[in-house]
Amino acid sequence: MATTTPSHDVKDLALAKAGYKRILWADRDMPVLSTIRERFTQEQPLKGLRMSACLHVTAETANLARTLKAGGADLVLIASNPLSTQDDVSASLVEDFGISVHAIKGEDETSYYKHIAAALAHTPNVTMDDGADLVSAMIFIALNRLDDLHPEVRNWASTLSPEQRAGIAQNVVASMEETTTGVIRLRAMEKDGVLKLPVIAVNDAQTKHFFDNRYGTGQSTIDGVIRATDMLIAGKKIVVCGYGWCGKGVALRARGMGGQVIITEIDPIRALEAAMDGFDVMPIATAAKVGDLFITVTGNIHVIRDEHFAAMKDGAMICNSGHFNVELQLDGLAKLAKDVTKGIHPFVDEYAMPSGNRLYVLGEGRLINLAAAHGHPASVMDMSFAAQALATEWSLKNQGKLEHKVYNVPVAVDEYVAKLKLQTMGIAIDELTAEQTKYLNSWEQGT
Predict the structure, then answer these.
(1) How many folded domains does the chain comprise?
(2) pLDDT tens digits, 253-296
(3) Residue 323 — very low, low, confident or very high, per pLDDT cuts 50/70/90?
(4) Are residues 186 and 229 both part of a single domain?
(5) Does the annotation place 54 within a ligand binding site?
(6) Which of 149, 186, 235, 327 is in Cβ range 3.0-4.6 Å of 154 for a Cys bridge?
(7) What is its biological role (predicted)?
């Protein structure tokens, strides 16, 4: 147990005992991160570092937080989604591990942004983001665009001098971004010339998106749907909006359970790939008329809109596994509906349409895998969070050399994580012979 109780805003510290067990259970399936934590404990590469992390507060994230603290970091952890927090985990991180946590499952918008302000008030040297909300707030403050901030953050920022506002971003060595949505937002900031700090796109690491996005999102999304609805996937028409790595994973798992999977896409290459992978491909306007379950995983806004809701059949279920609930035009759906019954079933809201049809929105349109289930399995998060920890260490080693742009995770870090993961799985691979290495690095020998 921690010797002192750090600052916190959690549901109930009495939940810590259950959270402690959950954290250690996840740790059993995260051997790569455990290996890194052992080295961090000895070497203290993050000593004296002030960190703020805006992530899903789950048992897996808790083991990342433990690793960062073991490396010497002074960490504040907040939730990146109002429904993704595991309250017992939050309590245990505070009580048992002495980590400052501001996160409550189901927190309202005011609490969410109050926690953003708490993370900023920590004056971090490194940040971790899952959707770029933390960095976005920093940028608005640095640009003195306080009117673009939520009142909770604006009220805090208004107490700072202009120099202090600029310093919020200037003091950051680097930020780690965990999601596709966040990387999209951050690259847009770089393009517009407003990015005020270096960013490491951890999401784009091969050991992250090839595995976390595909296998993690694929399995946990279907898990969330089933927990929320008890739906039998077999025989249902499952519409997956988006065929990036997350969409591929969801489609693969739905088909594996007997679902008749339909893909909607705006990218011709991905649409072609989906067709050649054996899926039906059609516009969302067409799919809306036949789908039983709709899952958005695009990272874009209003993928399913008013006209699509109006075309859906009775009993259609709609959910999102992209970062933000804006993928579904829920305000439009609420206006279309004659009546809305919240919580008709846990994590299910019913919308009664003028036609007499009933539509069901799962998890308030937020991440269904975290709203209604436990999120990604620990085994796959092992690699993602190992990359997070090592990318943090790399950014510190390169402090002062990084420009205000989005960087990929170094190949050496990616390969190191993959090698460690293979070792923990008891898998050996071949190595190039001297002759093969010479051949691959030469041009003289042809056919």
Answers:
(1) 2
(2) 999 999 999 999 999 999 999 999 999 999 999 999 999 999 99
(3) confident
(4) no
(5) no
(6) 149
(7) May play a key role in the regulation of the intracellular concentration of adenosylhomocysteine.
